[in-house]
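Page 42, continued from yesterday. The earlier attempt failed because a stray header line got pasted into the input along with the sequence. Redoing it now with the clean sequence only.
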Amino acid sequence: MAKLQIKESFTMAVVSLRSSKLRTFLTLLGIIIGVLTIIAVVSVIQGLNNYVYTKMSFFGANDFSVQKFSMIGTSLKDFREQMKRKDLTLVERDLIRAHCPSCELIGASVSTSQTVKYGSQSLKETEIRGVTHLDHEIGSVLELESGRHLQSQDETNSRTVCVIGSDVAEKVFGSLDPIGRWLKVGGRDFQIIGVGKKKGKILGFSQDNYVRVPITTFMKVYGSRRSISINIHTNSQEEMVKAQDEVRTVLRSWRKRSYNDADDFSFATSETFIQFYKTATSGIYFAMIAVSSIALIVGGIVIMNIMFVSVSERTKEIGIRMAVGARRKDILYQFLIESSVISALGGFIGIVLGFLVARIISAATSMPSSVEPVSIVLAMVMSWSIGLFFGIYPANRAAKLDPVEALRSEQ
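This time it went through. C-alpha cells are written below.
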C-alpha cells in the first residue's frame, strides 16, 4: 500500500479515536492494565535478579558450605528424611581439615537469635552466630569498622568476646564507642572487641543486626546438640570441585555410608542460593505474567467489539469510499491500522505507567527494579500484535461489505 494511503488511514484512525474519547479510553484500558502489569513485574523481577546475582550470594565464587539440610527442598517427604540426618559437628570439621588438601580455609558456624541489651537500650531478634576464627574470611567477607576479629585464642579458650554489627552499635550504643564495653546477649555478658562495617539491607532485611562470638563459647552457652555449617574456601572453581569430592569422601567414610546410600548432608554454593531464589520467586513471576496476559486478551476482545461497533456505525462511509474507487484491501488496511493504533497507544501508556509503578514499589519496599530495553520492545510488540490480531476479523468484515448495501445504510 502506498505511503499516502497509509498516512490517510492513520489520520482517519486518529480522528475516529478523538471523536469518541470515552469509548477510546475504555478500549485502551485493558491493554494499559496488561502492559502496565507486565512492565512492572518484569522490571521488579529483573532488578531482583541483578541484585541477587551481585549481592545475595552469601558465598564467593570458590567457596561452599556443608550443611545438614538442603536449601532447595523438593517435598515434605524429603524434608522429613533430612530431619533424620545426623548433625554436623566440630569433629567432622577437624576431619575435613586433616583430609582435604584442596580446602584452603575451613571454618564453621552456627546461629540462634536473642535480645541484646546495654543499659536501658535493647534490640530484639538479633542473630547470634558462633563462628571459628577464620570464618570471616570465607564467603561473604566480614570487614571491620573498628576493633579486631575473633582470634584462635578466643576460640580455644572459649572467651566471652564478640564482634557486633553496625545496627547493634547504632541502636544499642548510640554515640558511645562500643569497643571494650560489655553487651548482654540473652542472659550472658560479652565484651565487644570489634564492630563490622555497614552492609545495608537485602530485600528489606538488615545484614547488620548480628553478634559474632567464638563457636566454642556459643556451644557452652546455647548447647552443643545442634548442627553446624562447615564453611570452606578454595583457590579456584576446579579446586572447589575437587574439594567437594574430598569432603564427600571424608564424611561418607566417617558416617559409614555404603555405596548405595545417598549423602546425609548437603553442599551449598553461590549457585545454590541463586537457585533457591529462582525457585521461590518463579511461581509469583509466572502468576503475574498470566494475570497480565489475561488482561491483554480481554483488552484485545474489547478492541474487537469496539471495532465491530465502529464498522457498524460507519457502514455508509465504507460504501461511499468503495463507490469512489477504494479497494477492499484499502478498507481492510484502514481498520487494521485503526485497531493497531489503539493497541499501540494503550501499550505506550502502559509502559510509562508500568515504569512508574515499578519505581514506586522500589521506593516503598526497597525492592530494586531494572528497566531493560528488551522489555520495552517486547511490550510494544505484544500490544501491537494484540490489536492487529483482534482487529483482523472486524476489518475483514468491513472489507467484505457490499458497496450497494452499504450505501443504503441509514447509519
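Notes: The chain is about 55% helix and 15% strand.
Reminder to self: strip header lines before submitting.
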